[in-house]
Design goal:
50% helix; globular
């Protein structure tokens, strides 16, 4: 079985406990990160209605729920490869089209979306640079990409190391206990360690053609935000 298929099957298994685990493991702080992501994206695009919004690796629909509170008269699409996650999302979220698909091969037309977001899912995409190219293809000119992610930190400060201790040692234990799946939450710190740094991801976005790239890291650099534009 290939790595991507194993990751998708893992999310199928933990889908029923995923929302609870997220709230507990982040102490609810992830809600603030998502809200800021929406706010900065809409400030960049300059309007809050009549938009087409795609959330990739949408999971159980948390990010789409945030978009729907911020936008009027807009169209929403959620894409995820996990059937288990999508089943829960469809029960939670109304007025959204959900599609089972991979981020590396989006079943959407060129320049069809005003906003693309991906929240804590990019590092789970094998060959994620292909997904970044797909995001660029699908975004309209003048469109905005929002990425929220746990980034690899190659040079942690003492304060950063405290955050790393939590994600590497404490979080897998708590997540395993909540989900009854230790393997899934042991995967999390490994996925962060193997992922790009902030500077590396910024460089990849620039090479693809994204511009005006804003980035910011939160709470001992555990989480980072990127907002990038596709030139008009």
């Amino acid at each position: 079985m290939d790595k991507q298929k194993k990751i998708v099957e893992m999310f199928d298994v933990i889908a029923p406990s995923y929302d609870l685990a997220n709230r507990v493991l982040s102490f609810g702080i992830d809600i603030g990160w998502r809200k800021e992501g929406c706010k900065r994206t809409l400030e960049r695009i300059g309007k809050n209605q009549g938009l087409k919004v795609l959330d990739v690796a949408c999971g159980t629909g948390d990010m789409i729920a945030h978009w729907q509170t911020q936008l009027q008269c807009s169209e929403f699409i959620g894409i995820d490869p996990s059937k288990g996650m999508l089943e829960i999302a469809q029960k939670k979220i109304q007025n959204c089209t959900f599609i089972e698909a991979q981020a590396q091969n989006l079943p959407l037309e060129d320049e069809s979306m005003d906003i693309i977001s991906i929240a804590y899912g990019l590092r789970n995409v094998c060959e994620y640079p292909l997904a970044l190219k797909e995001f660029y293809r699908v975004l309209k000119k003048g469109g905005v990409l929002l990425i929220l992610e746990f980034m690899h930190n190659p040079n942690p400060s003492f304060f950063d190391s405290l955050g790393l201790f939590y994600t590497q040692k404490v979080l897998p234990l708590l997540g395993g206990w909540i989900s009854k799946n230790k393997q899934a939450y042991a995967y999390l710190p490994d996925s962060i360690k193997d992922f790009a740094s902030v500077d590396e991801l910024r460089g990849q976005l620039e090479n693809i053609g994204f511009s005006h790239i804003f980035s910011k890291s939160y709470h001992a650099k555990i989480s980072s935000i990127f907002v990038a534009s596709k030139e008009k």
